[in-house]
């Protein structure tokens, strides 16, 4: 049943893609754009619910094109288990497809960084990379790269230790290991992504679970600027420098966002709904500021390790010290932002308390106004009132009594207003 369902969804997806292509060529006027996406979503949901043996059996029955499409929808956590179930021929095809976007190798050509397509061991044998970058690699990819270069590539999901001895160390064979956090700042979603660095035979190996803006920026710079990097250590320092720049840009965004919130908070009035929005915005910026502080702290620890172990040349040492000075300046900004966040948080909470006090004041005024009315209503409900008004028709007596209650309520309200005005005049200006 699973095989048949997968085949049906693939057929619907291909039909929708064909219709979409025809529509884009102008042959049809109907809006058929993106009709194939729901089929892919259904297929992705179905694939995530299948077990590794069943999914491997389905991939074995599909054509190479369909198998590649389904393989692209397999969750990363299932990839290794599925590869263990398929035969060697299909495993090589699927694994090579994954490498096309998870493995990036770079070598120097005329002083510039040049990316080399890697799909097999023969491709690696033809290049002399200074940087091998792995993005969300499978266990098979890590074992393949590690076996080729003679080292062990760690799993980025296991980089959770905080102690320095587990994050920065040198192996007996001279391998330099650094596990650092890099900031990923997106609207409403800021995270620290762990990255593993290994310096081995003047080659930098980097492993992470997802793509980061800092890495894209450094690849672009090294490709366009001649002499930007000369070896793997230069590439490592440039990545740390770019991370500090990225953190500084995120701090500028924090200043801008908190400035907008400050304009709203410093108004004379603020509703509870506006206060809730302001609190959410402040909390988001507090989280981002905390992640920036953690990020620069981790970068400082990594650079300090490289400096103390005397693993840098004279020029590289100067670059590392400059990055440390930049990080030192960012510390002052993060501390200032924390103070600003606390001030704005207290101001918003103060507005909420003021609004609550206004509501309580109105309720208090109403209770004071109705207090004498409750006394009169109690008197009017007693039998003595009927005895005192026995010579007066009851509609007239109760009408006069009701009118008297309104007069008493009005007089009580007037007295309260006069008291407030008198109290406000006595306050010092």
TrEMBL record:
It holds the Pfam family CorA. It is a multi-pass membrane protein. Gene3D superfamilies: CorA soluble domain-like (3.30.460.20), Magnesium transport protein CorA, transmembrane region (1.20.58.340). It comes from the Bacteria. One of its GO terms (cellular component) is membrane. Keywords: Membrane, Transmembrane, Transmembrane helix. The chain crosses the membrane at residues 359-379, 399-419. GO terms for molecular function: cobalt ion transmembrane transporter activity; magnesium ion transmembrane transporter activity; nickel cation transmembrane transporter activity. Its main location: membrane. InterPro entries: CorA_cytoplasmic_dom (IPR045861), CorA_MIT (IPR050829), CorA_TM1_TM2 (IPR045863), MgTranspt_CorA/ZnTranspt_ZntB (IPR002523). It is found in: Membrane. Belongs to the CorA metal ion transporter (MIT) (TC 1.A.35) family. This is Magnesium transporter CorA. It comes from Geomonas limicola.
């Amino acid at each position: 049943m699973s095989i048949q369902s997968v085949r049906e969804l693939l057929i619907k997806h291909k039909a929708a893609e064909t219709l979409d292509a025809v529509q884009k060529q102008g042959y049809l006027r109907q809006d058929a754009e993106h009709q194939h996406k729901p089929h892919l979503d259904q297929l992705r949901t179905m694939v995530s619910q299948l077990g590794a043996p069943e999914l491997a059996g389905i991939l074995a029955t599909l054509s190479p094109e369909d198998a590649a499409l389904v393989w692209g929808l397999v969750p990363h956590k299932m990839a290794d288990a599925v590869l263990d179930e398929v035969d060697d021929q299909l495993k090589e095809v699927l694994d090579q497809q994954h490498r096309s976007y998870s493995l990036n190798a770079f070598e120097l050509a005329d002083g510039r960084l040049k990316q080399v397509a890697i799909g097999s061991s023969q491709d690696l044998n033809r290049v002399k990379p200074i940087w091998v970058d792995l993005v969300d690699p499978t266990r098979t990819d890590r074992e393949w790269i590690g076996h080729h270069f003679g080292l062990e590539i760690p799993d980025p999901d296991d980089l959770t230790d905080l102690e320095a001895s587990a994050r920065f160390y040198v192996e007996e064979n001279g391998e330099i290991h650094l596990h650092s956090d890099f900031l990923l700042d997106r609207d409403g979603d800021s995270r620290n992504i762990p990255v593993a660095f290994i310096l081995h035979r003047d080659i930098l190996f980097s492993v992470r679970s997802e793509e980061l803006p800092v890495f894209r920026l450094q690849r672009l710079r090294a490709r366009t600027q001649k002499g930007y990097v000369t070896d793997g250590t230069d590439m490592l320092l440039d990545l740390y420098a770019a991370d500090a720049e990225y953190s500084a840009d995120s701090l500028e965004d924090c200043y801008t966002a908190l400035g907008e919130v400050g304009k709203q908070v410093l108004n004379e009035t603020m509703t509870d709904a506006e206060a809730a929005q302001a609190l959410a915005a402040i909390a988001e910026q507090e989280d981002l500021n905390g992640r920036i502080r953690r990020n620069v702290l981790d970068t400082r620890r990594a650079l300090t390790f490289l400096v103390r172990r005397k693993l840098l040349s004279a020029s590289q040492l100067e670059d590392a010290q400059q990055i440390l000075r930049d990080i030192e300046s960012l510390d002052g900004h993060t501390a200032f932002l924390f103070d600003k966040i606390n001030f704005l948080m207290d101001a918003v909470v103060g507005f909420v308390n003021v609004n609550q006090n206004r509501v309580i004041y109105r309720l208090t005024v109403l209770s004071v106004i109705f207090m004498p009315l409750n006394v009169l209503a109690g008197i009017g409900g007693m039998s003595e009132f009927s005895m005192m008004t026995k010579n007066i028709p009851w509609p007239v007596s109760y009408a006069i009594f009701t009118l008297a209650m309104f007069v008493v309520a009005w007089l009580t309200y007037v007295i309260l207003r006069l008291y407030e005005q008198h109290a406000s005049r006595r306050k010092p200006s």
